[in-house]
Amino acid sequence: MAVTGMDIFKLLPKTNCRECGLPTCIAFSMSLAAGKIDLATCPYITDEAKGKLTKMDAPPMKTVILGSEKRPFKTGGESALFRHEKKFNHPIGIAVLISDTMDQADVDGRLARFARLRYHRMGMLMRAELVAVQHLSGDKKKFADLVEKIRKNSDAHLILMALDPGAVSLALARCDSLKPLIYAATADNYQQMADIAVTHDCPLAVKADTLNELIDISTRVTRAGVEMVVLDSGNRTIKQALENQVHIRRAAVWKKFTPLGFPTIAFPCGMTQNSAMETLIAAMYITKYAGIIVLSDIQGETLFPLLLQRMEIFNDPENPSMVPSGVEELGMPDRNAPVLLASSWALTYYNLSLAVEASKTPVYLCFQQISEPDIMCWCSHCLRSTHKGEFNARTTAKFIKDCRLEERVDHRKLLVCARNASFQSKLENELPGWEIVVGPDTADLLPGFLPNFAKTLGN
Fold first, then answer.
1. CB 198 within 8 A of CB 228
2. Phi-psi category of 442—alpha, beta or left, where left has phi over 0 and alpha has psi -120 to 50?
3. How far apart are the C-alpha atoms of 443 and 383, rounded to whole Å?
4. 213, part of any domain
5. Which of 80, 150, 269, 447 falls 20 to 30 Å from 289 in CA-CA distance?
């Protein structure tokens, strides 16, 4: 939070009622300041105090929302420069560029890749979210027709890239209830663009050639009634673009400078003709500090590493990443494939995924949700851990039964790592009919173990 525990404590009723689940109001204040409890947990805080705390806690960077009420896309709302300080809130949006001068095959190809290039990892769907529709033809109707086609044939959030207010107005009429980002208000058209954004309740991007001009236009459009603004410093050289991104974030977070207290949009697509270099520039923007990046096109080999980078940066540094509890198929396992028990820690998932791929043996991985990340389970990191977490035979047996493995495999053998050997007999007692097989100590030894083990299951 932007406020301290003592700031919060001064506004509390100080009853020490314990109804929030904590022993004192000061404990509640410190937990609230650390983001570990919600303000609504206090039953006796006054509406006036709530209002003051909400205002004090508002992030210095405004949250911008586009899309629909049922499926909004959010960017901004950040209050830190570095991930170790605090969790970043809204992952960067990735957009693909489509212009109204492209031929039909090119447009259809980009929309097909937009729909197809989606990846499931650790229970998360990773994908590009936006399409930036660029008006270059000079034909307003052609631009509006393209916007309508994209809206009807994809689930993309839209960015309307046109400097002509008339083209923007015509395209907005084709967006139905989907609120796009309007790009862009400049020194020449900001009043007309601001009026359109206010009328349609859409976010508005502001573009300038310098930071001073950006501040000026941002101030003017907010005075005109635009509440949600996205900033484009206009620079398309790597060094200056990076400097501008850092200046804008510092001004917002450190100085609370409201004209720059908005997310940014960046255009790697306009900075190089080389796809590999464009991907590197996009990676820079993901790190420092874009809210939306626009790519000239998306391909699996360029999009996937950007999605992985984004996922890692926007996880919570205070809470170790966990995979969802349940069964995951690696490869294409059949009814004789090995079944492995693993903890839900993300690092275990990564190590097991690599080991299974190296073994060329399809498996079923049973990830049991745990409260401590350093449970003794396959990951070599656990050898250096304090081993706070341990599998419990009763809860693990219930988890295995809930997985309904008998519907997936014909055998009844469950593979656990050697560091859980003492757990073997306890789990067999809780799981009648199952044989608990002790495997190697760590995942890196599985490639030499799994192929031979898998052969025994088909006999």
1. no
2. beta
3. 12
4. yes
5. 150
Q: How far apart are CA 421 and CA 439, in angstroms?
A: 9
Tokens of residue 457, six digits: 């299951």
Q: Are 157 and 230 in contact (CB under 8 A)?
A: no
Structural domain of residue 388, as residue ranges? 326-457
319 within a domain of the structure (yes/no)? no
Residue type, 6: M
Question: Number of folded domains in the chain?
Answer: 3
∠ Cα 251 256 260 (to 5°): 50
- CATH code, domain carrying 24: 1.10.15.40
Burial of 84 from C-beta contacts in 10 A (0-12 / 13-18 / 19+): exposed
Residue 427: give its domain's CATH number.
3.40.50.11600
Whether residue 186 is found in the same domain as residue 308: yes
The pLDDT tens digits for 304-363 are: 999 999 998 988 766 667 888 899 898 899 999 999 998 888 878 888 888 999 999 999
Name residue 308's amino acid. L
* 214/158 same-domain check: yes
Tell me, yes or no, whether 261 and 208 share the same domain: yes
With tokens 């009648």, the residue in question is 432
CA angle 409, 411, 415 (to 5 degrees): 95
pTM greater than 0.90: no
**Number of CB atoms found within 10 A of residue 324's CB:** 11
